[in-house]
Structures
1.
Amino acid sequence: MNWKESRAPVWVIWGLVAAFGFTQAIAWNLAGGAPRRPLVLVEVLAAWVVVLLLAVLASRRIETLATRLSQKERAHLSAIDEMEQLQTQNAMLQIVARSVDVPLAFQALASRIIRIVPCDRSGLALLTENGQEFQTYTARVRETERRSRPRPEVTFKVESTAIGFVVRSGEPLILNQMQEAAPEFLDANVLYNSGFESALLMPLVSKGRTVGTLNVVSRKKGAFSDAHIDALRPIAEIFAVACVAQQLQMQIGKYRTIEAMSDYMLAIASDINGALQTIVGHCDLLDRAHPDPALHRDLATIVLQAQRIADLLEKMRVAANERLKEAAASISESGIPASPEAYGDREVT
């Protein structure tokens, strides 16, 4: 309920009072003037005092009720917004629980983001492993999505971009005058040339590390405010956790692959080394049983090559162990527990 709607009943009351007074004045004028008897004048004045008091009390009561109704309406709208945010967060958690695929979750939730923050498009920019580039994903929230799975559309460098500025600062950024930001930021220039006038960039921060940005853009100037930042902050936090979880899952997958390859390589090396020892043993027996110098030279060549193969297998075994240790160290630095017991200890600390 706006201000004019809340004041309408008050205006009606005072309009009726004014109409009554105007009608009485016309009646007195037609009757030759106001009544001259004091008792009648007292009665008229008393009636007007009562009418005015009732009008004042009714006006105040209506204003009080209108204020309470406005407060309840604002609380209701706030509850609806909060419920929409909770539903979006719940939907995202369900998607992440089924599969840690951040771009897929973003595409599935793009239609819900527009309910929280009115916009024309939403975007997701994820930092690559080398930390030098962003892969951007776009969801056309007002159009039907034609792709079953999202794919990176544009790759931006960290330097000279608004998303890079947000990642370095770790703070949200509102660009309500895209024309002014276009000469400074490459991505803002791309958006401005595409017809967008406003943008809101939210950093995805998890454990003090920024892994990307969640972006919404609009074709209207001044479309975003601090209230929209507060509305998007919980969603950005969930996206950040999902991004870190996806990175950790990929690291675990690489570690398990390396571990499986190392185990397989060590098993093959052990079998080959056993066969080489058998060959060397038979060569030694032949060397003792046959004193032919030519045969001795051939057997020495075979033994030499067998030892060379054994040395190569040893180098492969050492390299596999070192690579496995490097992968384990990377997992440890990422904070992934090596066992359920270690996870419990980490939770306690």
Note: Residues 99-248 form a domain with the Beta-Lactamase fold (CATH 3.30.450.40).
2.
Amino acid sequence: MTDKIISLKNLAVSFDKREVLNNVTFEINQGDILAIIGPNGSGKTLLIKSILGLNPNYTGEIIWHSKPETSYVPQKMVFEKGFPLTVKEFFLFEIAREFSFWMPGKKLEEEIKKRLESVKIGHLINHRLGDLSGGELQRMFIARSLLENPKIIFFDEPAAGIDISTEETVYNLLYDLYQKMGLTMVLVSHELSVVYRFATKVVCLNKKIVCQGSPHEVLTPETLKDIYGHHVSGYKHSHNLEHDHIS
């Protein structure tokens, strides 16, 4: 039997006193990789923030059946070239800001490096944020999300603003973490090829839920047209991330 984590029932989400979404009903189950797709302005980020309690402007029900440790990785931040804070200092600042535990300095640094090494950037611990590439920054934010040892992580366009080859690496990395840590993931993505290959379930939004279910079953040319309002070609990608090399 599948363990439910979150149920949404008849959710209506508003922004600036304007209803963006209505009649949204779906469930997030343990072990899901749930992709949320839809056109720009369709309320995908607002929906995630509502689930996490960061947006109070909704009606309907959001039911957490359990309270697992949860992390949220928002859309990518950009640091100016030469920004002086190092990766280690960023982590120390985040720990001081959000966590109330104390740990000896050497042990704390080991813990930070362990998280960085889990996303293949342990060697960047003393590098300045302004010197990191877009892909390296995104890996750092993913490492940051692991500090709480979460069971469910929400990603808002985890590969936004990075090149295609780096995007491939980021999604393979997420899938690797999903398998090794037994995570549940919820992600907003505009990349249909990623959704086909990566997600176990998809929720399609355009003012309401247009479709939901297995990407290979529900993402037809007809539903894609209903989602995006124009012709979009759908295809099934046979590539399997489980066999990808994680660089």
Note: The longest strand covers residues 4-15.
